[in-house]
């Protein structure tokens, strides 16, 4: 694939970088009770979850995720199952991992992970939520809505925008996903799925320019 197809278009780079930075919560990582890896197409979730476990950031790790049209070919046995396989292959004891194989969206990720922890009598006063880089803010807002008493830290595989786009292999898809998640910050709060989040004017302007440029396939 030509390099030009794998990089962020120069005319949109500033706007894409603004959204990329907005969705990163920039939380400081510290020890918590539980790590929760949210299922998706991105194996980077399992990578950062494994790394943080090995650094002693939590004693219990939950992977939650069934399948979606975008993940069935990548993870045919289910997102959480493949994440667990990666983690155990890289040094996380199987006894430290709980998995939920039913969740099909972020709200269900949170609800089912919380129920699974309660079932296993694991007290979770603080959690690290691990997700795709551009999902951090939405995951945070969703968790705050559904699990308001828990202390939340968000984390992702620490890739740059360009490295992430190269890994996905399709920069348009990455931009479409960033635009879609930006829309969902307002939309999901309006629908009661998440708490409201502030969105600076320059982020809104960047979002609108990218919508006008045609990055709309992930809008709801």
UniProtKB/TrEMBL annotation:
* Organism of origin: Micromonospora lupini str. Lupac 08
The record's listing under PANTHER family reads: DUF218 DOMAIN-CONTAINING PROTEIN, INNER MEMBRANE PROTEIN, PROBABLE PERMEASE
All residue ranges annotated as the DUF218 domain in the record: 47-150
What name does UniProt use for this protein? DUF218 domain-containing protein
List the Pfam families hit by this protein, alphabetically. Answer: DUF218
Please provide one cellular component term from the Gene Ontology annotations of this protein.
Answer: plasma membrane
